[in-house]
Specification:
The structure holds two protein chains of two kinds. By secondary structure, chain A is of the alpha+beta class. The longest helix of chain A is centred in the middle third of the chain and has 18 residues, at 461-478. In chain A, helix 12 packs across helix 13 and helix 18 (642-655) packs across helix 23 (845-854). In chain A, the strands form 13 sheets. In chain A, strands 8, 9, 12, 13, 14, 15 and 28 form a seven-stranded mixed beta sheet that branches. Chain A has a seven-stranded mixed beta sheet with strand order 41-42-43-44-40-34-45. Chain B is mostly beta strands. Chain B has one domain: Folate-binding fold (2-Layer Sandwich). The longest helix of chain B has 8 residues, at 37-44. The chains are: A alpha+beta, B mainly beta. The complex binds zinc ion.
Chain lengths: 996, 98
């Protein structure tokens, strides 16, 4: 038995196929095809949650995605724990385990419910008003407490072990919604042969046909017709049918994001299927067939468990075979609730009474209800209900006041009418229009889309399907389909929804102090909306933020229209003048997992490894991340910490030699008859006269005169330059060059090629560097006479081509061996073997930084920050004085750039040589001045230099070069460090070692 | 994600392939070293930032790598048209009324 409220002859599920589940630890049995909601209701369970703010007991309002109350936690294991799952959409599987939220110690006895009694304190806007000051209390008291008391579910505290997938898709016609209208549109489009995608958020297509027992199409009942159509669509090669798939975001140019729940409904999904799949669909035409959502009645205590939408009760009965009670009442302002009452009555459920706010309602449904023997109280209102954890009675009163009557019930079905779901239309930037039926419907379209059926304000099955079929055919024709076959489905039996009401019902008017909920999820009452208007909120956007009406996952699905009507009434303005709040994506909550898909862990960002990475790994390198690169940071030997390893590496380079992997350097080949002219324009230096085979250190500026990049450039031929850039600057320097070449200097005959990944670069630096390289080189005379400092030669090393640079970033004799990337590791190994004969060391980026700082060589981006000129950096010598143009030439003469007192790069020596300054530390000239002190500069580079036997530092200091020998101060939290301003070169000031 | 028509590739490609490169039709003065501070300010710092039609540069950086010009409505984010670098500012825009 799958629950005492399961009705034998109703619904479409197979009772024999049972599924066991637990809720708050208690075991229940449901049926395959149930949602968690229908399975709980079949077992007579209505109380499933506590509300957000007042902790009021809550049950099921709906049977679908609009559910604001029945949010539960579903846990497969300790890591697979999903909070705030709507029980009305969670499909049941054998072994499902669910827990209620926002209650302590238990659902039926919850201490937090004291908020309900103390509710005057928690009225609208209380967060803004109550916790204003003292400011410090926010951080320490208010926020932590509010965060733990408010909020619904608890996020899991372990990494998500599931995987997710992501797909891009293109189609001619995307149809969102697989109810009668969506399927009609899909049929029409599919028959023409165009590419169609049709998606529906439910497990099975059919939409409202799920509960509309009165619908007949093509000689079948509506639901059976829908299943036949889906089977047909699935068999067509041009159609993709996506159930359990919600279109949650509508972006520019018909880009629609869908999330497919692939395995959330399976008892044992296994590891091969993703949990969810994100579809990023670009559609030539979009047909929105998103239906309508029933509105609740706004009256006192309308949130009692057992009080629900009429269409929900009808769904539970007609689809799941579950009666929501044994003795139900109905409260309505429109006809559709009558259909629910009639269906329940036919199934053997007692309908205590229909209370209809309208005077003398008439029509076929009303006649049928009377004929079925249901009592109808027209012109009357339900002003409140009895019962605490479950509704037990309704109090009925004439709508303009008068004698009360109490009617015992165990469930109350309500309907105030239907709200077209214009969420996606609104997200598409379409403008809604308020029509004569007091509904917001699609007005002006901003994209190639069309709304059909209930979401377009079209009433009735036949009218909706006509409209949808025509729209599907038109969309297909416009995207290249053949003419539609015009076999429009014939509607035999129709259901037409009528209008209803907006705003609060009698007993919940401006004078009432009752809790008549407008937004169940955010605990917003009619009174809160009115208070917001009384306190001066005039725009609906302000009312929304003040009260939180329609926020969070509700996004106005159930609350928007009532809230708006109440605000408009208070303002004595027509509804369209008060305006509708903006609908935002996502339509329903989307997991972060679905959005990031595979882009997590090692796939979060590409990792770049140099050709010699494997060697470095094998030799114990510790790596550091430099952009996307993994660079060998240092090579510790047994027992060495970083400090010891770096000291050893630095000493070895100056004593014998060191090998360094410089492959990450950006490299650009500038080629063509005008290559030198182009170089003249892009760099501050002169290039025309640079001899073939020679190198030059180049500085690149932006047009504003600030240093943008630097690097050594070799001239391989009259028309060919091998340009190097900083590691981090490679891509932007290439972009910068292309920009000028394509748009400012297009007359120049030059080609630019990024060769960063083509060449592996092995720097061999130190007094023994030539002896290490020479035995492996063919065709290059490496003597000082033939190959002086700053020259480049092409030849062979280890039998493979090389571009051999003689250059130094250490101040010692040095070379950079460029070889094709594929040979990088082999050549490195050969050089390493030679190096071993001379006690050479492999060194990493840390030693490289120290060695260059010992010589005062700057690193762009560390010693400069985008506001430093060549002069500031002491590099004026690299600016061609006779040049008439280069990028940045005018910027350099701007008044601020030639003013006195600019920050200039200098060296700093701590008075105590053992103290190593902190990079980024501020520099002042008087440590005794009051705080805030006047900061005159900051430390840009700072290291322990084993070669100098002391600490060294570079700093940008105002007027620095005029302060040589001055004592300045670096204030730190625990002490003030005295420093002396010096030149930037700390080692081998005369530069003799370049040829040493 | 926008679709942008590259005038060199002659097809619409996803926004991911492109990078915006700022306002278009600002030519670097050929005698830049000689211009006044005011002229340099206008050239380098002053930008229109309009609400509505903007003429801007884009680069098909992960495609053909070419820079080109585009006309875009900053309110709707819609591209009105794109055209090659060096072509004059269009005097008439398709589908845009004054
Ligand atoms: Zn292109």
């Amino acid at each position: 038995m799958s629950g005492a409220f399961r009705i034998g002859n109703a619904g479409r599920l197979t009772p024999a196929r049972t599924a066991r589940f637990t809720f708050d630890g208690k075991a229940y049995t449901g049926v395959e095809g149930d949602t968690l909601a229908s399975a709980l209701l079949a077992n007579g369970v209505h109380l499933v949650g506590r509300s957000f703010k007042y902790h009021r007991p809550r049950g099921f309002l709906s049977a679908g995605a609009e559910e604001p109350n029945a949010l539960v936690e579903i846990a497969r294991d300790s890591a697979r724990k999903t909070p705030n799952v709507r029980a009305t959409v969670q499909e049941l599987y054998d072994g499902l385990s669910a827990k209620s939220q926002n209650r302590w110690p238990s659902l039926s006895f919850d201490v937090g419910a004291v908020n309900d009694v103390a509710s005057p304190f928690f009225s609208a806007g209380f967060y803004y008003k109550t916790f204003m000051w003292p400011k410090s209390a926010w951080k320490n008291i208010y926020e932590p407490n509010i965060r733990s008391a408010a909020g619904l579910g608890v996020a899991p505290d372990q990494p998500d072990p599931d995987h997710y997938s992501s797909r891009f898709a293109h189609c001619d016609v995307l149809i969102v919604g697989g109810g009668a209208a969506g399927l009609a549109a899909a049929l029409a489009a599919a028959e023409t042969g165009v590419r169609v995608i049709v998606a529906d958020e439910q497990a099975e297509f059919g939409g409202a046909l799920r509960f509309e027992s009165g619908a007949g199409i093509e000689g079948q009942d509506g639901w059976a017709w829908a299943q036949g159509v889906v089977a047909k669509l699935k068999s067509m090669g041009n159609v993709r049918v996506l159930p359990r798939t919600t279109a949650f975001g509508y972006y520019a140019q018909n880009f629609v994001a869908l999330v497919e729940r692939v395995s959330e409904h399976l008892a044992d999904p296994g590891h091969d299927v993703p949990r969810e799949r994100l579809w990023q669909v670009r559609a030539k035409r979009v047909v929105l067939a998103t239906g309508a959502i029933e509105r609740h009645m706004v009256f006192a205590d309308n949130d009692r468990p057992g009080v629900m939408l009429a269409s929900a009760a009808r769904t539970y009965l007609n689809h799941y075979g579950v009666a929501v009670g044994r003795n139900v009442g109905v409260y309505t302002a429109n006809d559709s609730a009558y259909a629910a009452a009639i269906d329940l009555k036919k199934a053997g459920v007692n309908v205590a009474a229909i209370v209809d706010l309208r005077d003398n309602p008439s029509g076929a449904l009303i006649d049928q209800a009377r004929a079925a023997g249901i009592e109808i109280h027209d012109g009357r209102a339900v002003t409140r209900v009895g019962g605490k954890l479950r509704v037990s009675s309704m109090i009925v009163q004439p709508k303009n006041g008068g004698g009360e009557r109490t009617i015992a019930i165990d469930a109350l079905l309500m309907s105030a009418g239907w709200t077209p779901s214009v969420h996606l239309f609104s997200q598409s930037r379409g403008k809604v229009a308020f029509n004569e039926d007091k509904r917001f419907v699609p007005g002006t379209y901003a994209q190639d889309c069309v709304s059909v059926g209930a979401c377009n304000g079209t009433d009735g099955l036949a009218a909706s399907m006509d409209e949808a079929y025509a729209a599907g055919a038109k969309a297909a024709k416009e995207t290249g389909g053949k003419a539609a076959k015009a076999n429009k489905p014939k509607v035999d039996a129709d259901e037409v929804w009528s209008r209803g009401m907006l705003g609060s019902a009698p007993g919940a008017g401006p004078d009432a102090t009752v809790k008549a909920f407008v937004d169940f999820q955010n605990d917003v009452t009619a009174k809160d909306i009115r208070q917001a208007v009384r306190e001066g909120m005039r725009s609906i956007e302000h009312v929304k933020r003040f009260t939180t009406n329609g926020m969070a996952t509700d996004q106005g699905k159930t609350s928007n229209m009532h809230g708006l009507a109440i605000a408009a009434d208070m303002l004595s303005k027509p509804i369209p003048e008060v305006g509708l709040t903006t609908f935002r994506a996502p339509y329903t909550p989307v997991t972060f997992g679905a959005i990031i898909s595979h882009a997590r862990g090692p796939l979060f960002d590409p990792t770049r490894r140099t050709p010699m990475h494997g060697w470095a790994e094998k030799h114990g390198a510790v790596f550091e991340d430099v952009g996307q690169w993994k660079r060998a940071w240092y090579f510790p030997r047994a027992g060495e910490d970083m400090h010891a390893a770096v000291d050893r590496e630095c000493v070895a380079v100056r004593k014998t030699a060191g090998l360094f992997d410089a492959s990450t350097l950006g490299k650009i080949e500038v080629v063509g008859p005008d290559a030198a002219k182009f170089m003249e324009l892009l760099y501050t230096n002169p290039w025309e006269k640079l001899e073939v085979g020679r190198c030059r250190y180049g500085i690149m500026l932006r047009e504003d005169g600030f240093i943008y990049d630097d690097g050594v450039v070799g001239r391989l031929a009259a028309d060919r330059f091998h340009v190097t850039t900083t590691t981090g600057g490679a891509a932007r320097v290439m972009n910068h060059m292309e920009d000028y070449l394509q748009t400012e200097f297009p007359q120049l005959n030059v080609w630019l090629t990024s060769i960063s990944e083509q060449w592996a670069v092995i720097a061999v630096q130190g007094p023994k560097s030539r002896e290490i390289i020479a035995p492996l080189v063919e065709g290059i005379d490496m003597s000082d006479e033939a190959m002086p400092h700053m020259s480049v030669r092409e030849g062979k090393i280890c039998g493979v081509p090389t571009r051999l640079f003689r250059m130094s970033f250490t101040g010692d004799r040095g070379f950079e061996v460029n070889v094709p990337a594929d040979y990088g590791q082999a050549v490195w190994e050969a050089l390493w073997a030679e190096g071993q004969k001379h006690d050479a060391a492999a060194y990493g980026t840390e030693a490289m930084h120290v060695l260059r700082a010992e010589k005062g060589y700057i690193i762009v981006g560390q010693d400069t920050d985008g506001t430093v000129t060549p002069n500031d950096a002491g590099l004026d010598w690299a600016v061609g004085k006779k040049k008439t143009d280069f990028v940045g030439i005018r910027g350099l003469t701007r008044p601020d750039l030639v003013a006195k007192g600019r920050k200039q790069l200098v060296g700093l020596r701590t008075k105590d040589p053992k103290i190593v300054l902190e990079e980024g530390a501020q520099v002042v000239d008087n440590p005794n001045q009051p705080i805030p002190m006047k900061m005159i500069g900051h430390v840009t580079s700072s290291y322990w230099s084993e070669n100098c036997g002391r600490s060294i530092a570079l700093a940008l200091v105002a007027g620095g070069r005029d302060r040589m020998g001055e004592t300045l101060y670096v204030p730190m939290p625990d002490k003030v460090i005295e420093v002396e301003v010096t030149g930037m070169v700390f080692f081998d000031e005369k530069g003799e070692r370049l040829n040493g | 994600m926008l679709l942008i028509r590259c005038p060199y590739c002659e097809e619409e490609r996803p926004e991911l392939e492109f990078r915006n490169a700022g306002e278009a039709h600002i030519a670097r003065p050929t005698d830049i070293a000689a211009i006044s501070d005011d002229d340099f300010e206008k050239f380098f710092f002053i930008r229109q930032n309009p609400k509505g039609i903007i003429y801007e540069r884009w680069r098909h950086v992960h495609g053909c790598a070419r820079f080109f010009n585009a006309v875009r409505d900053t309110v709707s984010d819609k591209f009105v048209m794109t055209y090659k670098a060096g072509e004059p500012k269009p005097s008439k825009l398709p589908g845009v009324s004054k």
